[in-house]
Amino acid sequence: MKTFTQIEIAEFLGVKQPTISKYFNGKLEISAKDANKLNKKFGIPFEFWENPKSYLQDNDTKQIPKQSSNRK
User: Fold this and answer.
1) Confidence check: pLDDT of 42 > 90
2) What's the predicted TM-score (pTM) here?
């Protein structure tokens, strides 16, 4: 499975990378609409967004896009 960066996800949703970081860190709740878009495009399961940190600990992280921001 191909992995994606937070920047690629942010560009897809039309938001800035720090917003995606907040989603991944559980500091900001993602909308159902955006979660659905990410599920369809990147295969991120809806359950991931309920508690991202816990999900990553309990599941194979290879199934979730990279959390790297790849800042330049």
Assistant:
1) no
2) 0.70
